[in-house]
Design a protein that fits this description.
By secondary structure, the protein is an alpha+beta fold. Helices cover about 30% and strands about 25% of the residues. It has four domains: about 170 residues, Alpha-Beta Complex (Topoisomerase II, domain 5); about 80 residues, Gyrase A, domain 2 (2-Layer Sandwich), CATH 3.30.1360; about 120 residues, Topoisomerase, domain 3 (Orthogonal Bundle), CATH 1.10.268; about 325 residues, 6 Propeller (Neuraminidase), CATH 2.120.10. It is elongated.
């Protein structure tokens, strides 16, 4: 066997090899790639608003004769021509770009007219390009107008076999009208569409006086984005930002209305969505929120959209709040979305973020160049034609000599030379004369030539005047812009409205009447008010709350779920808590420890709670809070001093050593105050007897107390109130007494008897102002609850023992009492609300 030849260990070099640092090579290559993507794919040109792929599609279709008034051709044919002639990339990239130019929900003014399935706002994909057909839209003619008049530069295609336009003439301001979206390398553009009529007006204003056209004036002309899917833009701050700087954020909302439907229910009807929001995905998101119980009041979702337009129906449960649901949809779904504007475009091949005025300026400059290049082209054509006609006229004036020279010439070249020599004609003129037909020698033809020549002289003078005057060029641009506006502009679709305040948690929570309970052990809970049923006087009630041993209900009141709860502690501090921040619990639930909701220190306990449904409604009124301590000190402070309370609380009153805060009332300038004591005494005086003081003041004496007595309660009412004073004792007895039996006294007196603190009654526990229409809710230390009508409690004189209000179990005591009143019954039964003093909010 013959041995094979040994291979060399080092292969011979192939061509020239250059040694380079790999880091430097990576940097250089990546920069080349990045610039290729930036310039060649992802970013639009500021002049025509098109990326290369869109420009190539339009130019190819124009070359195929696919005008708006010509028959459609298969999309596959268009895609094939674009790929083969100008765009050496994937077919899906070309077809996707063409599909977007067809979609009226993507483009404010579609540039391609499609026939077939080109997708939908639900995110359905377009049919394959072998099924669909397309041609240019009418407005696309304006982008391509005059492209055959040397108005733009051309460059070789990828293989040098053809030439393609670097930019289109763009008689319409496409970048602003249709916007653009693209992600390049290290940068991105996201430009919203605008109303064509408004953009045209802004361009005219820029041409008239660009220096005087500031952002404020621009915003009067161009209101803001005008999306093809309409919607509502909230606020003008984001619009002003991107008008001025090229960057901003615009909040867009769906158009939704609340309608009454069958069964005395409501539904949210959505007819417009924010730009680029997928309707099918939106409905799926809403269904998921309902399934996950993040939105509870939706009973059904239907898509009733058809060829007449969009209609999404969101039905609300019978007891649901449509406004709250709508706020929840704004918060948790794409029904409200943000459109981040980055007006990035190519200027002279370089990416730049441009404010609106700069974009207008670049477009006007582009149109100047187009008009001037078109005028030069037409001037040159006119001069060429006039030159030929001038030769015709010379020949016609000497027709006999011309014929004689031609007949006597040996050949065409000999005739050309003789004519040029005898009549001083150019070679072009001579050739045109030789090419004339005999019928052009008729008198009629001669007159036509003279008329055409005269008309050409006028046009030549006009073209020269245009080229010599910048003002004439601008006037032509304005006329063309006005023509575009008249032919294509339509009404604004997107509404621009005032900016909405930042959505708070309140906007997402239904406003309803609730019962708030706070136990002596510091447990708080929120209960729907209709959990409780009214009973007759003396009833045993229902189990209201399970209690630990030795714990009992200390505070109970009724308010709404949006109220601000001012919680005053026994140490004279006040903390604020929204009622919806209190966890909801069942009737027998213990609730949540208050220390987890409030910043309480040591042995500090909440002694009084005031609910303020609206601080705004109290503005301009003599609205005050009156505070009373166990040792009989009283103080009056303006409500506005409590409007903004830190989470860890503020001082409400400065207390003497050993004293605690026992009562707080909301008053309105001329209210009467009632202070009662544990041994059954009470004093009545006007709140005007107590001057308004600061939060940290100590206050003044309200009632003079006996050694073994202390204050148990404070009540306030208007001067001529028709209410009665209800006094409740710890053993379940109480009575109603007319206010007229309590004479006005001076602040600081010893008061008069309001109820006998006997062995049967026990000590007085609390006082409340009530009427016949009120209900009374009583809770005991064992957690039992009784609700009874105040009209069942007979009025009695001051110095009596009263009647049984609630039948107590052995060792049980009354812990707290609160009056409530019934509103008219609706389809869901009675509701309750916190009593408000007459003349109050």
């Amino acid at each position: 066997m013959s041995k094979s030849k040994e291979q060399p260990l080092i292969p011979e070099p192939i061509g020239n090899i250059t040694t380079r640092d790999i880091g430097e090579e990576m940097k250089s290559s990546y920069i080349d790639y990045a610039m290729s993507v930036i310039v060649g794919r992802a970013l639009p040109d500021v002049r025509d608003g098109l990326k290369p792929v869109h420009r190539r599609i339009l130019y190819t279709m124009e070359g195929m004769g696919l005008r708006h008034n010509k028959p459609y051709k298969k999309s596959a044919r268009v895609v094939g021509d674009v790929l083969g002639k100008y765009h050496p990339h994937g077919d899906s990239a070309v077809y996707d770009a063409m599909v977007r130019m067809v979609q009226d929900f993507s483009m404010r003014h579609p540039l391609v007219d499609g026939q077939g399935n080109f997708g939908s706002v639900d995110g359905d994909p377009a049919a394959a390009y072998r099924y669909t057909e397309a041609r240019l839209a009418k407005i696309a003619d304006e982008l391509l107008a005059d492209i055959d008049k040397e108005t733009v530069d051309f460059s070789p295609n990828f293989d040098g076999s053809l030439e393609e336009p670097v930019v289109l003439p763009a008689k319409i301001p496409n970048l602003l009208v249709n916007g653009s979206t693209g992600i390049a390398v290290g940068m991105a553009t996201n430009m919203p569409p605008h109303n064509l009529g408004e953009v045209c007006d802004a361009l005219c204003a820029y041409i008239d006086d660009s220096k005087a056209l500031d952002t404020k004036e621009l915003m009067k002309i161009m209101k803001g984005p005008d999306f093809p899917t309409a919607g509502i833009v909230r606020g003008k701050t984001g619009i002003r930002d991107y008008f001025e700087t090229g960057r901003g954020s615009v909040r867009i909302q769906a158009l939704a209305e609340i309608e009454e439907i069958r069964g005395n229910r409501q539904a949210i009807i959505v007819t417009e969505l924010p730009y680029q929001v997928n309707k099918a995905n939106l409905l799926e998101t809403i269904a998921g929120l309902v399934r996950d119980k993040k939105i509870n009041d939706i009973s059904d979702i239907r898509d009733e959209s058809d060829r007449r337009g969009m209609r999404v129906v969101i039905e609300i449960k019978r007891d649901g709040n449509a406004n709250v649901v709508l706020n929840q949809l704004w918060k948790h779904t794409a029904m409200e979305s943000s459109f981040g504007v980055i007006m990035l475009a190519l200027v002279d091949g370089r990416p730049r973020v441009l404010p609106l005025k700069a974009i207008l300026g670049h477009y006007v400059e582009h149109r100047k160049q187009i008009v001037m290049r078109r005028t030069r082209f037409e001037l040159r054509k006119a001069l060429d034609r006039a030159h030929i006609l001038e030769g015709f006229l010379i020949a016609l004036d000497n027709i006999d000599k011309v014929i004689k020279i031609i007949r006597g010439s040996a050949d065409q070249n000999d005739a050309r030379e003789k004519l040029m020599k005898n009549f001083k004609l150019s070679r072009v003129q001579t050739q045109a004369i030789l090419d004339m037909r005999l019928h052009q020698l008729t008198r009629l033809s001669v007159d036509d030539i003279k008329e055409e020549f005269a008309e050409l002289q006028k046009r030549i003078a006009e073209y020269r005047a245009i080229l010599a005057s910048a003002q004439k060029v601008l006037a032509i641009i304005k006329d063309e812009i006005a023509e575009v506006k008249n032919n294509y502009a339509n009404k604004r679709r997107t509404q621009i409205t005032t900016e909405r305040a930042e959505m708070t948690l309140e906007d997402l929570i239904s406003k309803e009447e609730v019962v708030i309970t706070l136990s002596n052990g510091g447990y708080v809970k929120r209960i729907p008010v209709d959990t409780y049923k009214a009973q007759g006087r003396g009833g045993k009630g229902v189990s209201g709350q399970s209690m630990k041993e030795a714990d009992f209900i200390e505070h109970l009141f009724v308010t709404d779920s949006h109220a601000t709860l001012l919680m005053f502690t026994n140490r004279g501090r006040v903390l604020a808590l929204k009622s919806y921040e209190i966890p909801e619990g069942g009737r027998t639930a213990r609730g949540k420890a208050l220390v987890n909701l409030l910043h309480l220190a040591g042995e500090e306990k909440v002694s009084s709670v005031i609910d303020i449904r609206s601080f705004d409604e109290a503005k301009g009124k003599e609205s005050s809070l009156v505070l009373c301590t166990r040792q009989g000190t009283i103080k009056r402070t303006a409500l506005s001093d409590f409007a903004n309370i830190r989470r860890n609380g503020i001082a409400a009153i400065t207390l003497e050593e050993g004293d605690v805060l026992v009562g707080v009332e909301h008053t309105y300038g001329k209210d009467e105050l009632f202070v009662a004591t544990r041994k059954g005494r009470a004093i009545r005086f006007s709140e005007t007897d107590v001057r308004v003081m600061g939060r940290q003041a100590k206050g003044v004496r309200g009632i003079r107390l006996a050694t073994d007595d202390e204050v148990i309660g404070l009540e306030a009412c208007p001067e001529n109130s028709k209410k009665d004073l209800l006094t409740v004792c710890e053993n379940g007895y109480g009575k109603r007494t007319k206010l007229s039996e309590y004479r006005d006294q001076k602040r600081g007196g010893g008061g008069i008897i309001t109820i006998k603190a006997s062995e049967r009654n026990g000590d007085a526990l609390g006082i409340k102002l009530v009427t016949d229409s009120d209900d009374l809710m009583i809770m005991t230390t064992s957690g039992m609850t009784v609700r009874l009508h105040c009209k069942d409690i007979k009025t009695a004189s001051r110095n009596t023992q009263g009647v049984r209000l609630v039948r107590l179990k052995p060792e049980d005591k009354v812990a707290r009492v609160a009056p409530i009143i019934d509103e008219p019954e609706g389809p869901e039964g009675p509701a309750m609300k916190l009593e408000t003093p007459e003349g109050g909010e």
